[in-house]
Amino acid sequence: MNLADLKSLIFGVNNKKVSGIPASKLPKIREFQAGKIDNLTSSWRADPQPINALLQRALRPMVARSRDAAQNNPYGRKFVNMVAGNVVGPNGLRLQSQLKFASGNLRKKANKIIEDRWEDFSKNVNTAQNLSWNRFCSLASKTIAIDGECVIRIVHGFPNTYGIAFQIIDSTRLDVDRNESLPGGGKIVMGVELDVWERPVAYHITDPSRSNASYLHSLSGKTTRIPASEIIHVFLQEFPEQVRGIPWMASALWEMNMIHSYEEAEVVAARIGASKMGFFTTENGGMVPVDSSEGGELLLDAEPGQFRGLPPGVKLMSWDPNHPNSNYDQFMKRALRGMSSGLLVAYNNISTDLEGVNFSSIRQGVLDERDMFRMMQADFISQVCLRSVESWFTMGVINGSIPIGAEHIEEVVSHLKFQSRGWPWVDPLKDFKTNEGMVRERFRSRRMILAEQGIDFEEVLEQLKEEEAMLKQAGLLSDQNILNQSSVGVENE
């Protein structure tokens, strides 16, 4: 094989025949199967496009369909509430101030002042003054799950004690059609103004029309430019240079809609099948004799335990559709498993189907799901909670509603955290023994174990201290009892 033949073989030039060797006898060149373009893959997208270009075309219909699923689809509604229940939880995300002295001891007085002021503010945190902090976080988490993003405005100078409030803005008001280049290298992408480094500079919020009818068809076109320092734009960035969020149900919406439509069709078909029907026919194909008492039609009402005769030459042909289909359950399970994968949740939880599961399988599914919710939870705390409490504390110190010096703002903010909800152990006895051994061998701390359960270590210590003091005061617990209880673990070791 000469050089020309080698080039032809490598680069595919005249590769049908090389030096008289048929193409079928030549060695195959390795390639990616996913990169092939042939009759089987002709409808498969083969031209990668920037994520923002795709969102400009698809974001509006995706949000509309996601909202419809959350309102009308039982699986969509279940998913949205699963997100709120697992990210925020029944008790909400609780602020903890962890200021310490140089000795390492907690500054309890200062911490209590901050936590008490936050608790007071948490009663009404939004501009409409109708949402507590827990309800505000729940609404924000649901909005992120449905729309893929949440736009929160920080309103400084609000007429309340702390001079600040928050407003959740409908993400559709962030104009997806506002795209333009700006002098100096900046640009506006789907309503978000970016500098040359693609850092958000401002958000262009469309003012909705006063009329509900016109709002349904279009927005007024007038926009308000709000600086990025006053906006918390929360979304999960999944691609480089992504500017807007993708609805979390996007990859499952098609299957979700098909499943819902199929269920509806099966229910209708089953209802028709349950209503036994039939038709009268004649042997010679002639007209069926009419019943003048029934308006010219021959009708037969069936009653239990009765048989009726028919006119001569007339036969009854029954129509009995067989629904629901015998494969209905199996088909639905397979379809719902695919949908649950797109939603990143366990099939048994989204479908509430616990048939055929065992302890090991449900444990694995629950643990995988919890890991996903922990990631969502951490992201929500980072983007929403910490940014919100930093703005609140700074404004409260400036207007004097929080009695702490302005020189301590940075120090205090760096020691604020949120205690998130935890989850009960899947197998309490085994998990307890495992954690007991981890603590004994110094592989884990008690604080870490309690944090996983959504429990504050300092609160537990304070409660135990108060509890033991009350028991001693009532004469139900002596110092010797406490000593005996604390020595049990040592004796067992």
Offer a few descriptive terms:
single chain; 493 residues; alpha+beta; 4 domains
Quick structural overview:
Helix content is 45%, strand content 13%. The protein has 493 residues and is of the alpha+beta class.
Characterise the protein shown here.
The chain is of the alpha+beta class. It folds into four domains: 3-30, no CATH class; 52-249, no CATH class; 277-319, no CATH class; 359-492, no CATH class. The chain contains 15 helices and 14 strands. It has helices spanning 3-11, 51-72, 74-87, 108-121, 133-147, 212-217, 250-274, 328-343, 347-351, 359-398, 409-414, 428-440, 446-452, 457-473, 479-492, and strands spanning 17-18, 21-22, 94-97, 149-156, 164-169, 180-181, 187-189, 192-194, 200-206, 223-227, 231-235, 277-282, 314-319, 416-419. Helix 2 packs across helix 3.
Provide the helix percentage.
Answer: 40-55%
H/E series: HEEHHEHHEEEEEEHEEHEEHHHHEHHHH
Mean pLDDT comes to: 82
- What is the β-strand count? 14
Radius of gyration: 33 Å
Structural class: alpha+beta
Proportion of β residues?
5-15%
How would you sum up the major sheet? 5 strands, antiparallel
The largest sheet has its strands arranged as 6-7-8-9-10
| Number of domain units | 4
Uncertain segments: 210-220, 487-493
Number of helices: 15
What form results from the Cα inertia axes?
A: extended
Report the span from N to C terminus: 78 Å
